[in-house]
């Protein structure tokens, strides 16, 4: 029988924060995105594949800060490289430090679509720069999208505070539905600056999807047919599915790609990479500037992260861990009397409950994740998880065991 976690300190901090910070916490980290009253709201520290909240509860961290933690928390080799840069050279200047060129050259070496590179701080920065580049390159306005692309005006799901004119030229289609895209392009293709898509499908609260045979190739062909810039949003898939991104794994090369999250193991950096004929508009036609974009600490962290990923064959080892986890999960759900799906194996595991006419899934989902968090496995009910290198074999086996136990407790939630 699981026991509710002691979360008194976390709850107190949350109540205090509500008085001084709108919503207490920004966006996707707010309690309603988990199971309110069951999940911690504040973490205190982490190491490797585990994280500890402010009440002292420890968890196997399988959300990995929503993806940036690819190796592990507090990786000494990466942090030491950053500290050395900080102490011996500094990191915020009126001019740019040489590390920028080194990192750009590395990305061009690894990523099929990369002929030129521009650095930013966040994924939303990167996707918005990519769209600006596409519009400037084509002198077109319309954008067709598939996936989550951030919080900026043109793509954010919640439209509060945003004039309609800033997003009315953006159209959506569903992942793996090539007919939907083809129909949109028939109507808008000659005016469409960009098709932006996540090469791996990860719609909110729904199962993770891999591309059907011919899907990404079909998207590429439609972009070519209408002279539209094809953008791959690799914020989640980049440096996880392959060091060259999912584009290298799937063999489909876009015109522009955006990367972030795993490329620096938690340090804030994003990159826009692409073919020279498109990227060159950033030299004159498109304005891009920020006080902090050139800061070198994140660039040092990224270069060191990539070095470790290559040197130690990290992605192969993560894939092995994820395949073991996925095999266990698929064995477990064979004996579960509910309509459950396991997706995203091996790199972005997600356990979801299919919608049903009686809305039973609305009880099963929070019940399952309540049982899981009480057993010390940190996953999110509405977002896929991640596998990190520092998750030990014992961590993965324990997490799978706790998934099985949690399913066994669900009858009490119905």
Automatic annotation (TrEMBL):
Pfam families: Aminotran_3. Its cofactor is pyridoxal 5'-phosphate. InterPro entries: Aminotrans_3 (IPR005814), Aminotrans_3_PPA_site (IPR049704), PyrdxlP-dep_Trfase (IPR015424), PyrdxlP-dep_Trfase_major (IPR015421), PyrdxlP-dep_Trfase_small (IPR015422). GO terms for molecular function: pyridoxal phosphate binding; transaminase activity. Transmembrane segments: none annotated. Keywords: Aminotransferase, Pyridoxal phosphate, Transferase. PANTHER family: GLUTAMATE-1-SEMIALDEHYDE 2,1-AMINOMUTASE, GLUTAMATE-1-SEMIALDEHYDE 2,1-AMINOMUTASE 1, CHLOROPLASTIC-RELATED. This is 3-aminobutyryl-CoA aminotransferase. It comes from unidentified. The gene is kat.
């Amino acid at each position: 029988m699981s026991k509710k976690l002691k979360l008194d300190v976390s709850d107190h901090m949350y109540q205090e924060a509500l008085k001084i910070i709108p919503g207490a916490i920004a966006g996707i980290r707010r309690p309603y995105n988990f199971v309110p009253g069951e999940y911690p709201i504040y973490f205190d520290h982490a190491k490797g594949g585990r994280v500890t909240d402010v009440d002292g509860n420890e968890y196997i961290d399988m959300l990995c800060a929503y993806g940036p933690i690819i190796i592990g928390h507090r990786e000494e080799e990466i942090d030491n490289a950053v500290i050395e840069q900080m102490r011996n050279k500094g990191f915020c200047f009126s001019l740019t430090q040489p590390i920028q060129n080194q990192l750009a050259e590395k990305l061009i070496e690894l990523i099929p679509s990369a002929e030129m590179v521009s650095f930013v701080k966040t994924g939303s920065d990167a996707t918005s720069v990519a769209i600006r580049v596409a519009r400037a390159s084509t002198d077109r306005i319309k954008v067709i999208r598939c996936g989550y692309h951030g919080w900026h005006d043109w793509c954010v799901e919640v439209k509060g505070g945003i004039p309609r004119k800033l997003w009315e030229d953006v159209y959506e289609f569903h992942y793996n539905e090539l007919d939907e895209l083809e129909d949109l392009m028939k109507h808008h293709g000659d005016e469409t600056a960009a098709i932006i898509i996540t090469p791996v499908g990860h719609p909110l609260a729904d199962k993770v999807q891999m591309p059907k045979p011919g899907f990404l190739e079909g998207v590429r062909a439609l972009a070519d047919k209408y002279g539209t810039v094809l953008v791959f949003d690799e914020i989640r898939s980049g440096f996880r599915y392959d060091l060259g991104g999912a584009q290298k794994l799937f063999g489909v090369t876009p015109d522009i790609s955006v990367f972030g999250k795993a490329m620096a193991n938690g340090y804030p950096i994003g990159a826009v990479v692409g073919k020279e004929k498109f990227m060159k508009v950033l030299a004159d036609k498109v304005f891009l500037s920020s006080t902090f974009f050139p800061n070198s600490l994140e660039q040092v962290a990224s270069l060191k992260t990539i070095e470790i990923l290559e040197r130690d064959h990290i992605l192969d080892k993560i894939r092995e861990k994820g395949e073991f986890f996925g095999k266990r999960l698929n064995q477990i759900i064979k004996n579960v009397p509910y309509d459950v799906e396991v997706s995203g194996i091996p790199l972005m595991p997600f356990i979801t409950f299919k919608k049903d006419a009686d809305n039973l899934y609305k009880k099963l989902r929070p019940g399952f994740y309540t049982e899981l968090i009480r057993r010390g496995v940190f996953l999110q009910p509405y977002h896929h998880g991640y596998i990190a290198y520092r998750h030990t074999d014992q961590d993965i086996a324990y997490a799978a065991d706790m998934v099985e136990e949690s399913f066994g407790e669900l009858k009490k939630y119905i």
